[in-house]
Design goal:
2 copies of one chain form a homodimer. Helices cover 35% and strands 24% of the residues of chain A. By secondary structure, chain A is of the alpha/beta class. The first copy, chain A, has 2 domains: 20-97 and 257-460, Zn peptidases (Aminopeptidase, 3-Layer(aba) Sandwich), CATH 3.40.630.10; 100-250, 3-Layer(bba) Sandwich (Glucose Oxidase, domain 1). In chain A, the strands form 3 sheets. An 8-stranded mixed beta sheet of chain A has the order 3-2-9-5-6-7-8-4, sandwiched between helices. A 5-stranded mixed beta sheet of chain A has the order 1-10-12-11-13. In chain A, α2 packs antiparallel against α13 (440-460). The radius of gyration of chain A is 23 Å and the shape is elongated. The two termini of chain A are 37 Å apart.
């Protein structure tokens, strides 16, 4: 009932906000163009075809792998093919990490093999693996409050299961263990950390994702079990006898071996204000296990297709539309941080930005993060998006999603678009992130939204900071 | 429309058949007992707990593996614990096969790793693997009609996708390639066969299952790709350039190394006709990849729980209820064939039999295979099962499912119970066959049906052959 009330109130506010929109930032011709752009986006398979091309011809593209270098070439060629006016790359440097293999087995009381995957950035176990008793923690808080030395010589195991939510808000509580769990466990004396995958599926496939070792604590290996294997391990533990697990990771962390990659940037040049940039972002890298069709092939496809549709108009919109395909997002927004460093002098010309990095589902909400005077224009935009099922959030505190948060922190206004994320964490960071998971119909809606947004922002001349 | 008509007509026939049931094979007390048994089965977690025990304490149990031997011990102990009067094992001999590892990669034009699994019984590739051009066939018929020598030095690839059907009837057209594909491909000169998995899911997990080499043709390696990987390979092939694949299997086929296992048989002894057996069957072995929670942990659990409920009654039913947990079903009904050999002299005393080997879903239909005079009794049974949502098939040609078909062929009357099989082939013969896939509520209905069936058949004294 409380949720229902919230929805109702926020819907009413959205409707009121839309009706309060008086300013008229676009000419009638512009409005006609937007309708035509929308129809094109809703009837074309272009975005899907871009993702098909990326996943078929490139596939996995983690920073430091041949696939990543191939992806950069692919993106440059694809932007040119799609009619971008300028395409260039900007070098990004990270360090090497080799995944190697992951083996996990219950040794006692009931020997069984488990499906496990190394957390991104994990160190290896000793060559022969380790065998130790496991201690189960129901969640990160329980692990955090374990007594010092209570895990000496043991493997810490966090069995917390991520909750499925439309906005992905189950991720936060679950991902703490992946990020900080190994260091917290090490601080209590553990020799390894294993965890239930951060994922909402029931597949025998582990979810990877980056860990961050905390300075000053021992670096211990970290691995994620598939959900059914975590169930199995917890069932054996629940029988009350000591449970021993064998874990072997052959990962190699090479912090002193640099690897180069690149942000790939493409523009269609504004006809009146070429130095003002409406920015769309996505990340080009992926984890190395699936083909990154969803994470973030969807973002790459939406932003390229949207720009292509606008490039096909008889004339360029007033401002430049810039697409940034960020490098090395998965390992900590490395490309986005480099972009902000390189373009720091120029951030004031980034008039507004939107990222896509949240999977394959219809967009149901737009949340702005703009100056108060620009809210009228946002209401106009919302009016254009409403027929696509997109409502306007009553909040105005968006700071940019994923990579774009690095630009948002530097003062760039942003809009966040929220898609239905119910299935996103079924496939996130897994082998299962493949083209068949893409919702081709939702992708058309997504692309229509980004096309309208970018054309509106580039053509209307609104100052979104004010 | 045609299907709808069929359903309507068969429903009418079912209802008519039920109303035509005049004979009254059970006393009022028996009918009360059946009601009580039904209530017990519908409210108890016993069947689920049995499957939980099997999958947690034993796990995978392919013939020739330690898990299989452990499963036999587990089953003997579990039957005793559940109050069976007699429990024994009967030796079954098969030969050794080692799965080894499977590696598959597209080498050209766009190198990508694929997820593959060896077909059960496959030979290995040469130690260094093989690299060859693939030739795609849309289905088994296309492969069969390829010209002789047209596949010399090539890898045959069958991309046929299994259809999802409630009764599992999509399996037949798909499984032909798994069973006979390698020999058919070898006959045209191929050096290996790869195929799209026989499965309805979109997981990055291959489906195994047995192949049968045909005498007189070369034994070539056979492997199944996961559905997303088959999609990927077909997409690369569709671009029109030659596609090369690397395949490496380290399987070992050891036809001359015998392995022993056992059918595990348990009874509650009939109070009036102990030498007449109402038989319930399931198979104890599984493939080696998942924990066999569904295939056929469900069958094991239903038959043991049903017998336990009847064993708890104040007195034994008139006939013996015999549960046979068959060995080595997955490699070709080896345990069932041995059972028929051992019990050939005694087949006349097997008054009726039912197997469970079709997953986790509510039973919607019962199909008999009995003598014409016994149909009245079957209608009485159908009347007892109707409140559980089980309709009576208008056909009377059941011969026993899976293992039980070996007994059916020797003249034993049978009933086949059909559950909703829509998701069965998502997990069939994969890593993903784990406890979380079990529908615990459907399992209660399943167990209620088997309890009622076996009590009815054991207590009523009907001759199902006549």
């Amino acid at each position: 009932m409380i949720n229902l009330k919230k929805i109702t109130i926020s819907s009413i506010i959205s409707v009121l906000m839309i009706f309060c929109a008086n300013a008229d930032s676009l000419s009638d011709q512009d409005k006609e163009r937007i309708l035509a752009l929308k129809n094109t986006a809703l009837s074309s398979n272009l975005a899907y075809d871009i993702d098909e091309s990326l996943t078929t011809e490139v596939g996995p593209r983690r920073v430091g792998t041949p696939g990543d270098k191939l992806a950069v070439k692919w993106a440059v060629a694809k932007m040119k093919q799609l009619g971008f006016d300028r395409v260039w790359t900007e070098e990004v440097i990270h360090h090497q990490w080799i995944r190697g293999t992951a083996e996990a087995r219950i040794i006692a009381p009931y020997p069984q093999r488990m499906v496990a995957i190394a957390l991104g950035g994990s160190v290896a176990t000793p060559v022969d693996g380790i065998t130790a008793e496991v201690v189960e923690f129901k969640n990160f808080a329980e692990l955090s409050s374990a007594e010092p030395d209570s895990l000496n010589g043991k493997i810490a195991y966090v069995s917390y299961r991520m909750e499925r939510k439309i906005d992905g808000s189950g991720y936060g509580p679950a991902v703490k263990t992946r990020a900080a769990g190994p260091s917290y466990a090490a601080a209590k004396g553990a020799i390894a950390l294993i965890m239930r995958s951060v994922g909402t599926d029931d597949d025998r496939i582990g979810h990877t994702g980056g860990l961050q070792y905390i300075e000053g604590t021992a670096k211990i290996p970290g691995a994620a079990l598939s959900n059914p294997d975590a169930d199995l391990l917890s069932r054996q533990i629940a029988r009350g006898n000591p449970v021993k697990v064998f874990l072997k990771l052959t990962a190699e962390r090479k912090d002193d071996v640099p690897v180069t990659t690149a942000n790939v940037i493409g523009e269609i040049t504004g006809s009146e204000s070429p130095d003002e940039y409406v920015v769309m972002g996505a990340h080009l890298d992926s984890w190395d296990v699936g083909t990154g069709a969803v994470d973030d092939g969807i973002g790459v496809s939406i932003t390229l297709a949207a720009t292509h549709y606008i490039a096909n108009l008889p004339q360029r919109p007033k401002r430049t539309i810039r697409v940034i395909l960020f490098a090395a997002e998965e390992v900590g927004l490395v490309g986005a941080k480099q972009y902000v460093k390189t373009h720091g002098h120029d951030m004031g010309n980034h008039v507004i930005g939107a990222e896509w990095d949240f999977g394959t589902g219809r967009i149901y909400e737009m949340k702005p993060g703009v100056g108060p005077s620009a809210l009228n224009a946002i209401r106009e935009l919302a009016e254009l998006l409403a027929p696509l099922g997109v409502s306007l959030s009553p909040k105005n505190d968006a700071k940019g999603q994923s990579d774009m948060s690095a630009l948002g922190k530097r003062g760039m206004p942003a809009v966040n678009f929220s898609p239905d994320g119910m299935t996103y964490f079924d496939y996130h960071h897994t082998e299962n992130d493949t083209l068949d998971k893409v919702d081709a119909e939702a992708l058309k809606q997504n692309t229509a939204v980004y096309t309208i947004f970018s054309y509106f922002a580039a053509q209307s001349g609104i100052d979104f900071r004010k």
